[in-house]
Amino acid sequence: MWQVFFDLDDTIYDQAQPFKIAFAKAFPQIKIDNWNQLYQLFRQKSDEVFPLYPNDREHLEEMWIDRMNRTLSALNEGNKYDSVMILEFQKIYNQQLKQIVMFPEMRKLLVELRNQKIQVGIISNGSYEHQMNKVTALGLQDYVAKDRIFISATFGVSKPDPELFRKVGKEIGRPTDEMIYVGDNYLNDVYAAAQAGCKATIWFNHRQREIVNKPVMATLEIKTPEKLFQIANLVKNLNN
C-alpha cells in the first residue's frame, strides 16, 4: 500500500500570508512592490541558512536572524535593522503562524485519500516544537496520525539530504519505493525524494517557479490548489 507524505510549509497552507503581515508590521519603512517576489526571496534565504545551523532549539534564533539579514541585504536594506528588530518580526510571524489554515483543496484531498484507505503523513524540515505548533494550528491531527508526522530535528538530518526519507522509511517499516511525496520546493521535495527512491514525486508549484535544467522531473507538477485532486487520481492509478 502506498504511503503519501506531504511537506508542511507552503504545501499544506499558504505561508506567504503570515509572512506578508509580519513583514509589513515589523518593517513599515520598506516599500514592497512585489510581495510574491519578496516571499520567494525569503524562502530562498531560509533554504540557504537552514543547513548551516544545528537542527535544535538553541540555535533557532540565530538562524532566524541570519535569514532575515540576508533577505534585507538582498533588498539593499542591510545594516539598517538590528537583531532586536528582526526578532520582533519573528515574534509577529510566529503569532500569525498560529492562525494559519489549510488550503481548502488540500483538506478535500486529505479526506479523499482517507476514503481511499491511503495512509498519509508529514515530512518537514524544522525544529520539532515550532513545526508541531503549526500542525496543531492547522488541525492536521484530524487527518494525519501522530506517528506519521516526522520533523527533521528529531532525525539530525534535513532535506534536501535524501537520508531523511530513508530514515522515515525505516521508522515506519516501509521502503522508500512505496512512498509518494508532495511538496512545493523543487530541491528539497522533488529532487531529494527522487534521490531517496520514492515511487513518485509531486511538485506543488503554486508559486510558478521556473527551474532551468532540472536534473530530475517530477512525476506530476501541479500549479494551482484547484488541481490538487489530481494527486488522488494518481494514487488511484498506481493502485490499479
From TrEMBL:
GO terms for biological process, alphabetical: small molecule metabolic process
Cofactor(s) for this UniProt protein: Mg(2+)
GO MF terms held by the record: metal ion binding; phosphatase activity
Any Pfam family the entry gives: HAD_2
Keyword Oxidoreductase included in the entry's annotation: no
Alphabetical UniProt keywords: Hydrolase, Magnesium, Metal-binding
Protein name: HAD-superfamily hydrolase, subfamily IA, variant 1 family protein
Organism: Ligilactobacillus saerimneri 30a
Lineage start: Bacteria, Bacillati, Bacillota, Bacilli, Lactobacillales
